[in-house]
Every structure is written in C-alpha cells, then in structure tokens.
Amino acid sequence: MNLNKDMLSGWVELSGLPKFTTTLIPFLLGAVLAWADGYAFDAVVFTISLLAVFLLTDFCFVLNACSVYADLKQQGIDVGYVTGTTSTLHSTAVSGRFDALVKGRISVNQAVTGAYLCALAAFPLGVLLHFYFNTGGLTLLLGLLGIFIPYSYSRGLRFSYHGLGEIALTAGVGWLTVFSGYYLQSHQASWLPTIVALPLIIDAFKLKLTREIPDFDCDLAIDRRNLAIRLGKVTTVRLYLPLTVCSWLAFIPILFLDVPHIGFGLLAIPIFFTAKSLIAVQRGDWKTAEGLSAITENAFTGMILIPVALTGIFVVKIVLSA
Fold it and tell me: What is the DSSP secondary-structure string of 180-229?
C-alpha cells in the first residue's frame, strides 16, 4: 500500500482523533487507580500498553467508518458531500461526513487494510507485555478482547446490526479500558476498577444511545438494527433521564474507597455537562438538528470528563498519601 499525502490526511480524518479520548483517558484512569492502590507505577509498561490501546482504537474507528460507508454504497444510496453542508445521510460513525472516502483521498480497501495493520501492530506489543514484562496471565486475553470487540461491532458477528452494539461498545470503552489499565500495572484482577468505572460504563451506554438518534436514518438505510432503531426515537430519549441519574448514583460507592473527599469536588465538572444535556433533552431540544447536536456535544463532554475527574480524585489520594 503506497502512502501519499492525500491518503494520510484521509486516514487521519477517518480516524477521528478527538474521539481517541474515549479509550486513552479511561485507560489512564485504570493505571492511576493501580498506583493509588499501592502498586508501583511502571512507566515502560504504561507507554507500550497505551500505544497498543491507541492502535486498537484506530482499528475500531476506521473499520466501523468503512463498514457504514460500504453498506450505504452497496444499497445504492447517495453519500455525496456538498461543501458547507452535511452529507446526504449524517453518521457520527464517520469523521468528516464521509468526505475522505467520497473525494477519493483514501479508498475503502486502503482504509480497511490500514485498520487491520493497526490491529496486527498491536498484537506483538501484547506478546511483549505478557511474556517479557510478565504483566499477568490475562494480558493477551485482554488484548484479544480489544481486537474482538471492535471487529465484531461492525464485521464478523456484526453486533451493531443486531442490537448488541451498545453493550459491546460499553464493555470496550467503559470497562475493558479501565480494567486493563489497572491490571497491566498491578498484575492482579480486582473488582476495584469495575466499581470505579461504573459511572463511566452507564454514561457510555447512554451516550451511545444518544448518538444513534442523529444516525437514525443512516442506520435504518443499511438495516443496522441497533437499540435506537428497535425502540424508536421517543423511547430512546425517555431513557436519557434514568440513565443519567443512575450514572450519578454510581459515584456513591467511590465514597467508601478511602479516597480524600476533597477530591469529589471534581465530579461537579462532568455532572454540569451531563445535567446541561439532560435539561436540553427534557426541554425537547432533541427534535431539532441544532438542539440534538448541542445535546450530543455536551453528553460527550460530560462522559469523557467522568474518567478525567476520577483520575484527579485518585491523583489527590496519591499526593496526600505520599
């Protein structure tokens, strides 16, 4: 595969680099959590494993984007891009509204090949961590899960086409990242990262449902029978309130984890953004494209700030106990 400037720019556009925060920050949370739990911080292991997470995230986003685009083309649906407007069918799965693929800066085959190369490059990093750095018997299994979940989301078992994509994504982003970050530092399986990740797990599920609303017509066109399609927009929106409240309540167990309560002030930041999006949903703003865009933006910001705030809480614990 010969690389050129257009292909590289197309790859970056398809990757949607700002969305990498959804995996890298929770992974960092897991590592900091292990450090706060009394385990020595291994910077080399962290760097190698973070690179593996980066590669698998790229594999996930590019493969999913190409799957949506290929399915639309197979259905004979116009996915053209008009400068200054949106594409014929909106899809949050694709950064740039299919622009890189439509304008031919990169082909589907080239992008898919690159995605598989990312997964292939991550595999020896997992082997290195498992056998050379002795990070624990679950290391390779966690890495294989990191490949299996994104692949099965849009290819293979096609979870996202059968109402299982939300669970798969939540498991990968909300739980696997935090658990892996903790395990690779501690070399121990523990319930602690799951308890700490619970608010993120719930909010990631909620965000996925929310982002499926603007994708509704696109997903319907390619017969992607996700939960939003199965439940309908109105029922999906009605889940926003209980899921938000459950995410907030999931912070409560963390109060009993021997962490400085002064750090809990940081939780006000993600709660502010999730509350802001909740108010907009209850107000009915989701019925307009502009309102829905603001809701998903605030919901995404609130979700990603959950692991940021939790990381801050455990950093405070590390500093105060030093």
Answer: HHHHHHH-S--SHHHHHHHHHHHHHHHHHHHHTTTTHHHHHHTT---HHH
